[in-house]
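Milestone 3.1: sequence recovery, worked example.
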């Protein structure tokens, strides 16, 4: 039996406690949505997630998707490289600088996604899948970048 001294009353209510609890709840919700978005936000990746009934099937589908996106990046890069004017007044827009930037981007993706996969927990299949998902996100970002370069033939 609860006695009057043990019952909760508004006098004992601390607004700060309620605010911290509410803030922690919202932070949790926002982090959950952010992780869910980062884990499988691409529509193509969602198709792989839904089609596969095992980690192996999802990984194979994701690898196939990564090959397609790598090809798309290389096609856009080659087309963009061919459109750079040789007589550019700005040193930053030369073909050589663009080639160096693309090589550096490839190295970044390899290192970043290998690191990301390495810090993922789980079996090696999950680590590989995390690395491929990371690469898919980077490839999507690169495709958008290459499509919006001012001299890109597919921009207009």
């Amino acid at each position: 039996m609860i006695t009057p001294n043990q019952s909760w009353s508004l006098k004992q209510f601390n607004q700060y406690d309620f605010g911290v609890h509410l803030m922690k709840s919202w932070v949790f919700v926002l982090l959950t949505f952010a992780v869910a978005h980062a884990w499988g936000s691409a529509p193509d990746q969602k198709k792989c997630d839904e089609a596969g009934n095992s980690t192996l099937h999802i990984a194979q589908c994701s690898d196939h998707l990564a090959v397609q996106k790598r090809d798309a990046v290389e096609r856009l890069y080659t087309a963009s490289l061919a459109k750079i004017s040789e007589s550019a007044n700005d040193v930053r827009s030369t073909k050589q600088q663009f080639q160096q930037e693309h090589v550096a981007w490839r190295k970044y993706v390899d290192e970043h996604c290998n690191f990301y996969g390495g810090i993922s927990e789980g079996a090696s299949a999950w680590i590989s899948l995390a690395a491929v998902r990371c690469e898919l996100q980077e490839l999507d970002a690169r495709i958008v970048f290459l499509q919006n370069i001012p001299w890109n033939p597919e921009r207009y």
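The radius of gyration is 24 Å. DSSP finds five helices and no strands in the chain.
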